[in-house]
């Protein structure tokens, strides 16, 4: 197991992990997941939020097994390698708010960093604006890092505290088996299911869950993180994580070409809109939020599986942000941004700046 950990942490390992994620994401799309959305942490968290009734947008409600697998796969990997460490207590309210702002920004764009790459790999030119916004948002975050920004250190916590997120995820998985979707119905027991739209598009359950578990395991071992890739490249000119970032894009592109899923252009792209500035601005807010929180949404899920309660707080912030986005008209759709999406971007940027400036540690004389 130690050899496996070292292998995945090497330069070759991170490239292999990124490439495998790219291939698997494209395959999930072929097997039924929405277009250019084989894996999207933000969108899938949003779907789960709808599945448990926290929002009632009936086209985006499905208990995505991939997300559950991410946490459980990371949990298994951390236990197997003795890296499961219960920790937390580092500015939980700030992390919760950052989770909300990250999700709202992502839903204005319609995708997380992973989906930004997958949209590019599918030929969606609108994702170029999202990628630019992501880079600028992370770059702004690095300016705060240089000034001493920090949310403080986590503290060791009880083993039981670290188990809470994996147990909660196991509970959601149990609900998925107890209340499976029923053809012709939009509700099964306590869960809601989309009958149309992106929420109704999904790969087979056990394939989705299996891929989620695998990705969770290898990402925990390799420390794969899209935000970290950009941060390290901008701050330190380090290419280690960024090589995995590029590998995901390249592998997904090649797989899409092979499968006939590459359709270049800006118009009529799946689950996307063409409002260029808001594609840029939404991902700027998301990238800024991820930087201040210390990880992209995928990395936050993986850390929550290895006992990091602070990452768990961020995840629940994202879930709450998804509920707000769809309950209050903040999220975009293929028709364009929501009626209150512009105001939401401005408010989220304001809160990010408050958290950024408010957590710069001043050097004492």
TrEMBL record:
Pfam families: Sulf_transp. Coiled coil: none annotated. The keyword Membrane applies. The keyword Membrane applies. The chain crosses the membrane at residues 7-28, 62-81, 93-116, 128-146, 158-179, 199-219, 239-264, 276-297, 309-329, 341-360. Keywords: Membrane, Transmembrane, Transmembrane helix. It comes from the Bacteria. This is Uncharacterized protein.
């Amino acid at each position: 197991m130690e050899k496996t950990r070292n292998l995945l942490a090497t330069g070759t390992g991170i490239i292999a992990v990124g490439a495998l994620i790219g291939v698997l994401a494209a395959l999930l799309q072929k097997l039924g997941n929405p277009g250019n959305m084989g894996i999207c942490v933000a969108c899938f968290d949003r779907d789960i939020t709808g599945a448990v009734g926290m929002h009632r947008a009936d086209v985006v409600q499905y208990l995505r097994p991939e997300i559950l697998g991410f946490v459980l796969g990371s949990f298994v990997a951390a236990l197997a390698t003795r890296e499961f460490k219960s920790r937390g207590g580092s500015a939980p309210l700030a992390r919760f708010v950052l989770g909300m702002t990250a999700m709202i920004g992502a839903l204005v764009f319609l995708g997380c960093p992973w989906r930004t790459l997958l949209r590019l790999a599918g030929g969606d030119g609108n994702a170029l604006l999202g990628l630019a916004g992501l880079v600028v948002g992370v770059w702004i975050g690095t300016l705060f890092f240089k000034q001493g920004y920090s949310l403080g250190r986590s503290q060791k916590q009880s083993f039981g505290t670290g188990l809470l997120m994996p147990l909660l995820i196991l509970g959601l998985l149990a609900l998925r088996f107890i209340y499976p979707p029923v053809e012709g119905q939009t509700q099964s027991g306590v869960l809601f299911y989309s009958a149309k739209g992106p929420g109704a598009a999904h790969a087979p359950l056990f394939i989705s869950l299996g891929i989620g578990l695998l990705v969770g395991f290898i990402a925990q071992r390799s420390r794969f993180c899209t935000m970290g890739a950009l941060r390290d490249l901008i701050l330190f000119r380090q290419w280690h994580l960024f090589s995995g970032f590029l590998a995901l894009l390249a592998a997904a592109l090649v797989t899409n070409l092979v499968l006939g899923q590459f359709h270049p252009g800006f118009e009529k792209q799946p689950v996307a809109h063409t409002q260029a500035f808001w594609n840029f601005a939404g991902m700027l807010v998301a990238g800024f939020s991820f930087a201040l929180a210390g990880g992209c949404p995928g990395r936050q899920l993986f850390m929550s599986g290895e006992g990091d309660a602070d990452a768990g707080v961020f995840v629940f912030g994202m879930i709450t942000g998804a509920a707000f986005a769809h309950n209050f008209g903040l999220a975009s759709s293929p028709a364009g941004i929501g009626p209150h999406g512009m105001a939401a971007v401005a408010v989220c940027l304001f809160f990010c700046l408050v958290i950024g400036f408010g957590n710069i540690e001043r050097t004492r004389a």
